[in-house]
Amino acid sequence: MADRQNDFSKGSIPRNIMSLAVPMTAAQLVNVLYSVVDRIYLGHLPESDSLALTGLGVTMPIVSILMGFANLCGTGGAPLCSISRGKGDDREAERVMGNAFVLLLMLGAASTAFFLALKGPILYLFGASSGTFPYADAYMSIYLCGTLFVMISLGMNPFINAQGFGRVGMMTVLLGAVVNIVLDPVLIFVFHMGVQGAALATVASQGLSAAWVLSFLTGRKAGLRLRLQDLRLERGRTGRIVSLGLSGFFVNMTNSLVQVVCNATLQSYGGDLYVGVMTIINSIREVFIMPVQGLTNGSQPVAGYNYGAKQYARVRQCIRFSVGATVAYSTLFWAAAMSFPGPLIHIFKSDSAVLEAGVPALRIYFGLFIFMSLQIAGQGVFVGLGRSKQAVFFSLLRKAIVNAPLTMLLPVWMGTTGVFVAEAVSQLVGGLACFITMYFTVYRPLERLAGELPGASEDPCGPGSSPTPRPGG
Prior knowledge:
By secondary structure, the chain is an all-alpha fold. It has one domain (about 1-450). Helix content is about 80%, strand content about 0%. The model is unreliable at about 1-5, about 455-460 and about 460-473 (pLDDT under 50).
C-alpha cells in the first residue's frame, strides 16, 4: 500500500518533489539548529568572551567528518533504494537498507574510538589555541559518546524519505531538535554546564531521533523494513553503496578539510577573532543553504524512481524544476546576505570587533553564492541517478582542488581577506563546472531517451552503454 501511495511515476512532478522537499527542508533546517543554537547560546556567554564560540568552531571539522560517514551510507544507499523501487524490486531495496545500516554501525564505532583517543592533538591541528582548547575538548568529549546516535539518525533517515514518507522523516529531526532547543538553555545557563551542557543536550536529542528512525523502519507502517536477514553484508551491494555514497562523504570530508585549513590560516593571520568570524559565517551558511539541499534531496527519490521506471521525460522535468527553484531561492538569500550582514552576525555575537571584521568578510564569502546553488543542484542529479564518478569528482573539485589551495595561497598577498575570497572563487568555478557537465552529459542524453529527439540510443550513465539504468553509475 505504501508503495502504491508513493509511486512517483504518476502525478505532477513539482507536487511529488515538493511533497518530499518541504518536510525535508523543514527537517534539515531544524537539524542545523542542533549546532547553530549551541553557537548562539555559547556566543553570548558573558564570562567566556568569544572563546567558547571559537572553541566550538574548532570542533566543526570533526562533526563534519562524522556526518560524512553518515552520508556515505545514507546518500549512497537511499538513491539505490529509489531506483530499485522504480524497477519494482522491493526486496533488493530492503537489502540495500540493511547493508547500509551495518556499515553505519561499523563506521560509527571506529570513528568514536579514533577521535576519543586522539582528540587533543587533532583539535590543536584543527586550529585550537591555548585559550579555546578547553572549550573544544569539553564539548567533543561528550559529543563523541553519542556518535552512534548521530550516525543512525542522519544515515538512516534518507531511507524513510526515499520511500516517500517526507513527514515522518521531518519528525525524525523535529523531535530531537525540540529537545535540544529546550535542554540547551537549561543545561548551559541554569545548571551552569557551559559547552558541556550544549554537548549533552545534542547527544540526548540525537538519541531520541535515532530511536524514532529505528522504530519506524522496523515497524509495520514502513514500505521497506529493516530486517535481520538483510544485515549480512554482501560485497557487490556494499560496493555500490560506498561508490555512490562517496559523493556525500567527500562533500563533508572536503568541508572538514577547508574548515581546518581556514581555521589554521585565520589563526595564523588574524588570531582567535577571525576563527570566531568564520564560525559565525559557517553557521549562517548552514542555515540558509538548507532549503537548497532540501529541494535537491526532495528531487532525488522522484528522479531515481522515474529513472528506474524508464520515465526519462519525467526525470528531465525533475531536473528543470529543482534547478529553477534552487537558483530562485539562492538569489533571495544572496540579496539578504549582501543587504543585512550586520544583523545576521549580531544573532551570534554583538561584540564590536567581531562586527567590524565580520561584515566585509561575510559579503565576500557569499558574493558568488548563486553559483554554489548550481553545483548543489547538478550534483544532486548525479547522485539521484546513480552516477557516482561524476558526483565524487565535483565533490572534490570545489573544496579540495580549488578552495583549499587558494585558502593557503591568497592570504600571502591579501591577509585574512584571502581566505574569504578563496571561498567565493571556488563557488564560481565549482558551480559552473558541475552544472555545465550535468547539462551535457545527463540532461541532453535524457532528451534523446525520452523520444523528444531522434537517436535515443545512449544511456546517460555512460557513452555506449545499454539504456537499462545502472544503479552503480
